[in-house]
Specification:
The chain is α+β, with helices and mostly antiparallel strands. It has a domain of about 40 residues. About 40% of the residues lie in helices and about 30% in strands. It contains 2 helices and 3 strands. A 3-stranded antiparallel β-sheet has the order 1-2-3. The chain is globular, with a radius of gyration of 13 Å. The two termini are about 10 Å apart.
Length: about 70
């Protein structure tokens, strides 16, 4: 299901980190709070910030988004 990508800020990398943070939260305490913010930072890039006890920031290109959505459909 995972797409290969040489870009460390890919959509797959974001989902891997999200899963890791969520599983760690559940394992440690069983509850927690995660926030995801996203905003377009220029014409072809979206900044995504995953906030938990630690914050992670990703930049996803329109090309990454198109590739991801084309394989999901």
């Amino acid at each position: 299901m995972s797409l290969a990508s040489s870009d460390p800020n890919s959509i797959d990398e974001f989902f891997k980190r999200f899963e890791s943070v969520l599983l760690q939260t559940w394992q440690d305490t069983g509850y927690g709070h995660l926030e995801i913010d996203s905003e377009r930072i220029n014409q072809d890039k979206i900044r995504v910030i995953l906030r938990g006890s630690t914050h992670y920031r990703y930049v996803i290109s329109d090309e990454d988004l198109k590739n991801r959505t084309s394989t999901e459909n």
